[in-house]
Every structure is written in structure tokens, then in C-alpha cells.
Design brief:
The chain is built from 3 helices and 12 strands; from the N terminus they run βββαβββββααββββ. It has helices at residues 38-49, 154-160, 162-165; strands spanning 2-5, 16-22, 34-35, 57-66, 70-71, 74-83, 88-97, 100-111, 174-185, 193-202, 207-216, 219-232. A hairpin with a 2-residue loop joins strand 11 (207-216) and strand 12 (219-232). Helix 1 (38-49) packs across helix 2 (154-160).
Length: 233
């Protein structure tokens, strides 16, 4: 079980969004010219959030598909509502890196009505926020965490680290690549703290699955799932 500080996302607007920006210089990836999947996933979540201004419409499920290595440099995101609705809508999202389509995403957004189902809501046992403790990092990761401090949807980056946090095979001997990330939300995180309880299941055919629960200080947040391609180095 892992707890990680993650800022609450902010809300924004638009009807079809198209934005260009230069990727963070300090992003850490699998090579000198590529970045990890977390930052692009967080940028796509932000693009979905801005596609239409309605604070009651929350991301209910977000599925990210990585189409290959994601180079650092200039990137562009575009989000389009493909199934509009007053209570439920489907958003399609794309990210280009150096004019190459690098990541695609789909997101279902659902209208929330606070406290209307409070009397039948389930409870979830959450761990208390830990006391300050020594921070540990994966080999080769800087103590300033690079891109993690520059992205609004930072908790998506935390979720994307599920396969590393729950690694079931030794680092340095095996590689495990998650080409997809799926998040299903019961609610948005309400504070900077996110508790992640995840596990990796390794199959006999070099494939695996990561799944787990996300929780905040006041209760259950959602679920994370990743598919893994596993290979010996």
C-alpha cells in the first residue's frame, strides 16, 4: 500500500479544445529522448476537463492508450465531445508529439449531484495520512520529481506509477511496459493526499495485469488498471 501527495485538480472550460505546449524539460523517461506515460496522461485529463464548462460534469472513466515512445518536445492536445448529453457524455482526446499522434484517450463524464445518495453510500476504510517520513525514489529519479510539480492532474501521474509501485519482478532483470492506463472514478480527490493500494499479477506468457484502489482522506476515489508486456532484459 502506498500513499502519495497529489494536488486536487482544477476545473476549466471550452467546447473543443486544441492546445500546443512544450513538454517539461525535466520529464524522466525510459530513454534520453522519451518521457514516461504519466505526464501525457495528465495533460489529456486536463484537456477533457476543459472541453465544456460545467463543474458538475466529472470524469467518470478515463482510458489512455500509448501508441509508442513519447518524445520530449512540443506537444499538442485536442479533445472533442463525440457523444453529448445532459447527464452523460463521451469525450475523445488525442495528443501529438512533434506532429506525430502519440497517445489517444476516451473519457466518460457523468453529472454528479452531491449528497443526493449519501444515505445509501458505501463506506471505505482509508489509511490515515502518515507522518512526515524519508522520501524514497526509483533509481535514476531526481529528488525534485521533475514534471510532477508542473502538472494540474498530478494524481493521474501517481496512478500511472501503479506498475512500478507494485512491481512483481526484479528491476534491472525484467522490463514491464504498460501500453494502456484505465481509471474509473467514484469521486475526485478532495485533498493533496492519495492512497494507492495496487498489485501486479504476472502470467506465464509474458503478460500481466495491474489493478488496485485509490482512496483519499475522506473515502474511496476509484480504481486503476494497467495491462503489462513483460520481458527479460
Amino acid at each position: 500500500m502506498t500513499s502519495h501527495r497529489s494536488p486536487r485538480p482544477s476545473t476549466s472550460c471550452a467546447a473543443r479544445t486544441n492546445s500546443t505546449r512544450r513538454g517539461p524539460r525535466r520529464a524522466r523517461g525510459t530513454s534520453k529522448c522519451s518521457t514516461a506515460g504519466g505526464p501525457p496522461a495528465a495533460l489529456l485529463a486536463r484537456a477533457v476537463e476543459r472541453v465544456r464548462e460545467d463543474e458538475a460534469m466529472s470524469i467518470d472513466r478515463l482510458t489512455i492508450d500509448m501508441l509508442g515512445p513519447i518524445p520530449q518536445g512540443r506537444i499538442r492536445t485536442e479533445a472533442t465531445i463525440v457523444r453529448p448529453g445532459k447527464r452523460i457524455e463521451l469525450v475523445e482526446d488525442k495528443l501529438w508529439a512533434d506532429d506525430r499522434l502519440a497517445v489517444t484517450a476516451t473519457a466518460w463524464r457523468m453529472r454528479s449531484t452531491p449528497e443526493n445518495s449519501a444515505e445509501v453510500a458505501t463506506t471505505f476504510d482509508t489509511s490515515s495520512v502518515p507522518e512526515p517520513q524519508e522520501q524514497k525514489y526509483f533509481p535514476g529519479i531526481s529528488c525534485d520529481w521533475g514534471y510532477g510539480r508542473a502538472i494540474e492532474w498530478r494524481f493521474v501521474i501517481v496512478a500511472d506509477s501503479a506498475n512500478g509501485v507494485s512491481a512483481a519482478v526484479p528491476f534491472g532483470e525484467w522490463t514491464f511496459i504498460p501500453p494502456t492506463l484505465s481509471l474509473t472514478f467514484a469521486r475526485e480527490p478532495q485533498s493533496e493526499w492519495l492512497n494507492m493500494n495496487v498489485r501486479t499479477h504476472v502470467g506465464p506468457d509474458c503478460r500481466g495485469v495491474v489493478n488496485g484502489d485509490l482512496a483519499g482522506e475522506i473515502g474511496y476515489v476509484g480504481a486503476v488498471t494497467q495491462r503489462l508486456l513483460i520481458a527479460r532484459l
